[in-house]
Amino acid sequence: MKKEDLPQDPGALDKFTREVCYVKNQDGKYETALSKGWDVKKQALDSAWEEVNERVEDARRAVASGEKSPVYYFMELRLMDMPVLSGYTGFFPFFIKRHFKPSVFKGLSERKLEKYARAFDITVSELKNFKG
Amino acid sequence: MNIESQTDAFHHVQTAHCENGVTTALLRYHGLEFMSEPLAFGMGSGLFYIQIPFLTVNNGPAISFRTMPGAIFKRTCKSLGVEVTRKKFSNPAVAEAFLDQKVKQGVPVGCQVGVFHLSYFPKEYRFHFNAHNLIVFGERDGRYLISDPVMEDVTSLSKEELSRVRFAQGPLAPKGHIYFPEKIKPISQEMIRKGIVSGIRRNVRDMLSIPGNFAGVNGIRHTSNHVRKWRDKLGLRKASLYLGQIVRMQEEIGTGGGGFRFLYGAFLEEAAGYLQDERVSNISEDFTKAGDMWRASAIKMAGVYKGRLTEQKDFEEIADMMLEIRLVEKEAFQKLSSLKLGK
């Protein structure tokens, strides 16, 4: 990539930092240059977030209709998957899957709820009272 | 970010990639002024390609354009005869006490962290990715002074904030991982040349003759074969998300552009100076070409996830582009191999 071809499309990094890229200068030698971003990857990031938001919305609907427990919704909201949530709570995936069922969720002990609440950065009552 | 900190000895270095940056800044702090990001990357045999089988990351394919986390620091230090200390902890309080002790001694240290809770990162970038690296180089007003190599300037984190990211959970959980160079002997030009040569040879081996079909240059063909099938198998929507994931791994902050290929080109150019070998800098051109081709393929992939390109023939074209890249990279590494450096 030549230095003059380095894209400067402002994106999510805009107010945070510019990033170092390796480019060819006029003498055909490598040097570093700072880029504000590139539309091609900005759109990749945007489409990843669209997907995340859709998953969260699906999860919210599933809670509202009584198919899933709030644990499922907050897992999606916090961009987590099974291994990550399992790491933060210490519960095995098998049990987490059970906790997705509203009937099982209702009977969870205060201690287990606290572990989930801490993993999700919310209070126990927010977790318990989430209705979708 | 107006900390005019930067203690007398420690200087923040902004780099494309975090691990190269930590390696470069820490080694420079210990007197190895010649260290640069391309040199650290090349001596650590940083260039790679792998599509990890059966694993998905953020609900997409797990693809990496570089070697595994931690390897660059380890290999670069080793090839220069630098002894390193690395520690992991099960107890956050012990981890913090150890860090505080190092800070008190005025020793800058590298820390592995997760980015999801990293408060100074923009929200858009905060996924559960646990192999980010930063340097803690001091403390002021109860806050750690942080040099994050991907940033233009230094920043700071509270004790709670740092402890939280050092004990992020999930795949590649850092477990408080802390590391720093311990003993450094005087380094001769000869040692640098040897480090460069062994870095290149290891990289040739990794890219050309690693077993299995999903890593090295053959890994690119592996992904290419997948791309051909994605549209039928996953549907257009999911297939385009998968392509978006490839572009993010390849071009996002930390790669220097073109999936680290430009960075490797810069390394070979620098290496040619040390080795006094014009042939090496000629091969640098091949990696520049590969990087440019990766970027061209990203533009094509963007056409798909923007919804402009929807046909199977577009996926076929992307797959063909990847096969061409594979050939360019394969030939480049074969040329490096045939130089018989160090023999």
Automatic annotation (TrEMBL), chain A:
<protein>
    <submittedName>
        <fullName>Uncharacterized protein</fullName>
    </submittedName>
</protein>
From TrEMBL, chain B:
<protein>
    <submittedName>
        <fullName>Peptidase</fullName>
    </submittedName>
</protein>
<dbReference type="InterPro" id="IPR032369">
    <property type="entry name" value="DUF4872"/>
</dbReference>
<dbReference type="InterPro" id="IPR026935">
    <property type="entry name" value="BtrH_N"/>
</dbReference>
<dbReference type="Pfam" id="PF14399">
    <property type="entry name" value="BtrH_N"/>
</dbReference>
<dbReference type="Pfam" id="PF16169">
    <property type="entry name" value="DUF4872"/>
</dbReference>
<feature type="domain" description="Butirosin biosynthesis protein H N-terminal">
    <location>
        <begin position="17"/>
        <end position="149"/>
    </location>
</feature>
<feature type="domain" description="DUF4872">
    <location>
        <begin position="160"/>
        <end position="336"/>
    </location>
</feature>
